[in-house]
Amino acid sequence: MNKKFYILLIIFIAVLSGGYFINKKFSNNSFPVLMPSPSITVSPALSPSVSPTEVPLSQEKAIPNSYLIKNFPFQSQAPFANWDETHDEACEEASVILVEFFKNGKTTISPQTMDDEILKMVSWEVKNWGTHKDLTVKETAQMAESFYGLRLEEKFNITIEDIKKEISENHPVILPTAGRLLGNPYFRQPGPIYHMVVAIGYSGNTIIVQDVGTRRGENYKYNENILFNAIHDWTGVPENINSGPKNMLVFE
Questions:
Q1: What percent of the chain has pLDDT over 70?
Q2: Which of 54, 158, 214, 240 could form an SS bridge with 186, CB 3.0 to 4.6 Å?
């Protein structure tokens, strides 16, 4: 009996001691203090902005103030000053020849070469079309491709800015005009009713052309307003030339 008593007493003391130490270890002061989580502020998504070094899209294709297609060949449509009916009506052929030689990297055309090329082209027209005549922008493009394999893009209802943009990309532009509206003092007066020139440059309000209608036509300068006012595609009727649309041919 006494033995059981002592055993129970020892167990009781052990339980009390254990409870004390457990209470000591896990008292309020020993529990970790849970700190409130810091609030997270979500910043709104930043709006995309244009870097100071980037060029706005609207200005990416802005054309320069001046531009000249360099080393562009020139020769008159009447290289020997023979203004007979064939040469008098050869501005379309001569303009195409200039672009063809430019395409091939040739910077000069001798009078004899120009004359030979014009006569061969006129013979082609007579053979294929039955006549040598004034040509519209569309017909000029057809002749250039058939005779030379030269592809010229037709563009319609153009503006002066369209012309400058093409030139600034080094693309020569063939322009059909009501020739007498150009007011060129070097034309045989009163000047051609219908005439083509090749625009190769500009500076400010001046357009620079190769004007095959005069031996003084190399890098000839026209006021842009005068030139643009004169741009008219061939209508087929001389009296209606001033009503022709503003079209052009571009070599790219």
A1: 76
A2: 214
